[in-house]
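Standup notes, structure subgroup. Blocker cleared on the zinc ion input:
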Amino acid sequence: MDPKTEMAIRIACYAAAFAALGLWEMLAPRRPRSIERTRRWPGNLGILAIDALAVRVLVPTAAVGAAVLAAERGWGLFNLAGMPLPLAAILGFLILDLAIYVQHFVFHHVPVLWRLHRMHHADLDIDVTTGVRFHPIEILLSMAIKIVIVVVVGIPALAVLIFEVALNATSMFNHANVAMPSWLDRIVRLFVVTPDMHRVHHSISRAETNSNFGFNLPWWDRLFGTYRAAPQAGHSGMTIGLPVFRDPAELRIDRLLTQPFRDDDAKT
Ligand SMILES: [Zn+2]
Ligand SMILES: [Zn+2]
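Run returned:
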């Protein structure tokens, strides 16, 4: 696939998911907003623009390009083994999703990496834009890890593209402030991480922050014992964010970018 078509598919999926979830948030919000959108959205969307630019400029071929190269040169386990495309694609998708789960767990438990990931958690409310709020250094590190996995395993380019588009969409979905009937949530979370499941991960309570690491498939949390069904204070009563960076001035883009390099300023 030529890069322009690939980029067009990505942007169209991004825009469609964002518009649909934004509309759903307006029509059926899960929780009342604790902070106006005008204070959070410029920073969160500004970060999205910087992330997109950083990846374009620094790793222009990105993970899909790495997969194409690995296939051409015969690199990676799946290419060496001559694995049939459908099997390689399904296994590749699962391996990438597991890798993102493990990476997320590690970013919570290694202090220097937590400094980078902490910015995602410092959002004082949670909605569709929180799903794209990741520090550019975390995004670049994450891309480098993904490229290594794609090349070592030999994951087909199509699986990488589907995985990345799916992950962008599910990340926006599971951060969205949308109400779903509880019976529907119970069914959907058997297959995909739902907003009620991921919101637990944004609780100010440390035990809850360190649970529900999955972004896409919900199975890894259940398998590795990091699953938590609901926040103790309830979805309406829970506090979103961290004990640090609670000043609304921290929602500004310049503050977001410098958070990893500043010590905790919590008075808690
Ligand atoms: Zn996290
Ligand atoms: Zn999150």
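Discussed briefly. The pocket of zinc ion (ligand 2) is lined by residues 120, 175, 198, 201-202 (CB under 6 Å).
Next: hand off to the docking folks.
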